[in-house]
Design goal:
4-stranded antiparallel beta sheet; globular; alpha/beta
């Protein structure tokens, strides 16, 4: 903890606790400074950021959006809010959207008409791709940027889990969320740094930032006269949440250093256990190490994912599987999916380990010793 309590007390003593106040602007400014994004708009959740980003990408009812099947469900639901339809893609070895399969789909399963891209199967327009930088690992966007430009498809980055991650394979350092048309951050309680709840929309265009801010404040054209020329949303971040965020972002480098140390401890210790491997990071990015993942070899390890979760729960240690695959979720089972193979294998073999900055060597050794008991 840093200055969070001090800043919260300032909010309370000044009576600026709602969606106005100096900490909102200050938090946006600090996010821009850290990510090197030109503009940042603070909203009340990462989901709200995704919803507004889709609306500002001119998505229309019936349009289609390509999205990975491994992801928290928020981007899928945001697509649904816009009355659009997801097309689910497989993932690569880092659990990110499979760029190779996505490009193959775009090249072989779509056609161009009047400068827009359409799905051969459904004849519907594919207006957007949402890439999700899962667990802090970044999607390799270089190839995808080119084909999105060629196909006139918007690119939105769901960077909810990757604040602090950045690319090393661009000419200049590019932070998560600063490559696409929009980047969507989350500062929920479980993220690398938190506002308690909240999100941010990143964009490089002032016009889009202004529109996002307008829609997030109920689309007020004349606030005093209560004139609203568009449908707006009550999506702005509160000053209280922003105050926490300002205190948190002041310590981001310390947090990332601690997270990196935890990751390296896991790598060093788990590499000595038969039948278990760590999910590592792509060499083209520096990851924030949000959550540490292990993969089980079903032949070389005694326990499966469900058994391990039960064992850890008995020891009062919280672990969890990855998210249930989105193309199998009840509301989306009838949506199109494309060549999904890897994701199913990960669902049955990958486990999320405790990754909080409160972990120390004693706690990590306890986790590792439990895992070591069941090696063959």
């Amino acid at each position: 903890m840093g200055n969070e309590k001090k800043y919260l007390n300032e909010c309370i003593s000044s009576n600026w606790i709602s969606t106005s106040g100096r900490f909102i602007n200050l938090f946006e400014k600090k996010v821009c400074q850290y990510t090197k994004s030109k503009y940042a708009v603070a909203v009340n959740s990462g989901t709200s950021a995704l919803h507004l980003s889709l609306l500002l990408s001119n998505i229309k009812p019936g349009d289609e959006v390509i999205v990975p099947t491994i992801s928290f469900i928020a981007p899928i639901n945001a697509i649904n809010y816009c009355k659009a339809n997801p097309i689910f893609m497989d993932v690569d070895k880092f659990l990110n959207i499979d760029i190779s399969k996505t490009i193959t789909f775009l090249e072989n399963e779509t056609f161009t008409k009047k400068k827009f891209t359409y799905n051969k199967k459904t004849k519907k327009k594919i207006s957007t791709i949402i890439v999700v930088h899962v667990f802090g690992n970044l999607v390799n966007l270089k190839q995808l940027i080119k084909i999105c430009k060629k196909k006139n498809i918007n690119l939105i980055e769901d960077a909810a889990e990757s604040f602090g991650s950045y690319y090393k394979n661009f000419k200049d350092t590019k932070h998560a969320g600063t490559v696409g048309k929009f980047g969507c951050l989350s500062f929920n309680g479980n993220k690398t740094i938190t506002c308690g709840g909240g999100g941010v929309i990143l964009t490089q265009k002032k016009e889009l930032a202004d529109k996002a801010r307008y829609l997030a404040t109920q689309a007020k054209n004349k606030p005093v006269e209560f004139v609203h020329n568009n449908i707006g949303y009550n999506y702005r971040m509160t000053n209280l949440h922003a105050a926490i965020g300002v205190g948190q972002i002041e310590n981001i480098n310390k947090v990332l250093k601690k997270k990196k140390k935890i990751f390296q401890l896991y790598v060093d210790k788990i590499s000595k256990i038969n039948g278990i491997s760590m999910i590592l990071h792509p060499n083209y990015c520096s990851a924030n190490n949000w959550i540490n993942l292990i993969q089980l070899n079903k032949i070389k390890y005694k326990k499966n994912i469900k058994q391990l979760i039960k064992i850890f729960t008995t020891n009062k240690i919280q672990v969890r599987p990855i998210w249930f695959l989105n193309h199998l979720q009840k509301p989306y089972v009838n949506c199109q999916r494309y060549n999904i193979i890897n994701a199913q294998k990960f669902l049955d073999s990958v486990l999320c380990l405790p990754s909080s900055t409160s972990l120390n060597n004693i706690k990590i050794n306890k986790i590792v010793n439990i895992l070591k008991k069941y090696e063959i």
